[in-house]
Specification:
This protein is of the alpha+beta class. The protein folds into 3 domains: about 110 residues, Herpes Virus-1; about 50 residues, Zinc/RING finger domain, C3HC4 (zinc finger) (Herpes Virus-1, 2-Layer Sandwich); about 70 residues, no CATH class. Helix content is about 35%, strand content about 10%. The termini are far apart. The structure holds zinc ion (ZN) (7 copies). One zinc ion binds next to loops. One zinc ion (ZN) binds next to loops.
């Protein structure tokens, strides 16, 4: 039940405490602490009546927090002890390190009791809160920051955080959960979509274009489009058309062939004309040379 940092409080007049360890110990003043045992008067400041923070002892034997004795001096040019009205002489004031160690080793309950049942020494109070399972912390997810107990963070992140990421079942990428539906419906490359031509297949979104080149329901041009056939049809039906329209296709090819022959003969004629023109010109050149 007791926290691991529990230590026996040793009267410090005779035994040196583990002062090396105590150096890093501290606590925040002006905070309510629940002490395991009732706080003894000698650990209370004679000015603010709270637990002594950095205790200083005066010549009259009373103890004050460091900041309290400083404010006493600021308030009065001649500071007076509020208990016995004696003048506090600065040269008689000393840092009470013995008392300080005792105070830092007093046991307190965690502020998150009763959820947390840790008892810690006052000097480790803040340190404990850095690890306390019942301390309220924000969700580590920067977009969320919802407040929860530290012990619940793991579960929140794995199951409840609106900004947690989950693997998309289809493309296996990590997607923020709130965007998962939109991702699947609109952008996931691996999400199965039905063929735009309503064939029986479902295809990963990224494969639709490729599928359309083999889809049995895709509309295609007749292979004789180049020869003038305007029939379009689904891949299966088109094969039937090709068989049925064999004669029509043949006529289209013949027509095209006739046109080509016509063109060739036209070209041939114009070539012949150019040939005789060249010969005429050559004759003219020869005559001019002979006269010269
Ligand atoms: Zn004080
Ligand atoms: Zn006094
Ligand atoms: Zn705690
Ligand atoms: Zn969250
Ligand atoms: Zn996906
Ligand atoms: Zn299809
Ligand atoms: Zn055709």
């Amino acid at each position: 039940m007791a926290h691991s940092e529990e230590q026996a409080v040793v009267p410090c007049a005779f035994i040196r405490q583990n002062s090396g360890n105590s150096i890093s110990l501290d606590f925040e003043p002006d905070t309510e602490y629940q002490f395991v045992e009732q706080l003894e008067e000698r650990y209370k400041c004679a000015f603010c009546h709270s637990v002594l923070h950095n205790p200083h002892q005066t010549g009259c034997g009373h103890r004050f927090c460091q900041h309290c004795i400083l404010s006493l001096r600021e308030l009065n040019s001649v500071p007076i002890c509020p208990v016995d009205k004696e003048v506090i002489k600065p040269q008689e004031v000393f840092k009470d390190n013995c008392c300080k160690r005792e105070v830092l080793n007093l046991h307190v309950y965690c502020k998150n009791a009763p959820g947390c049942n840790a008892r810690i020494i006052l000097g480790r109070f803040q340190d404990h809160l850095q690890h306390c399972s019942f301390q309220a912390v924000p969700c580590p997810n920067q977009s969320c920051r919802e407040a929860m107990l530290r012990k619940d963070v793991k579960e929140h992140l794995s199951a409840y955080c609106r900004f947690r990421e989950e693997k998309c079942l289809y493309c296996k990428r990590d997607i923020v959960v709130t965007n998962l539906q939109d991702h699947e419906e609109n952008s996931c490359p691996a999400y199965p979509v039905s063929c735009p031509n309503k064939c029986v297949q479902t295809i990963p979104r990224a494969g639709v274009k490729e599928h359309l080149t083999v889809c049995p329901e895709a509309e295609q041009d007749c292979p004789f489009k180049h020869y003038g056939c305007t029939v379009k049809g689904k891949r299966g039906n088109l094969q039937e058309h090709e068989r049925a329209a064999l004669q029509d296709h043949m006529l289209l090819v013949l027509e095209k062939n006739f046109q080509l022959e016509q063109q060739i003969s036209d070209l041939y004629q114009s070539l012949e004309q150019k040939e005789s023109k060249i010969q005429q010109l050559a004759g003219t050149v020869k005559e001019v040379r002979e006269r010269a």
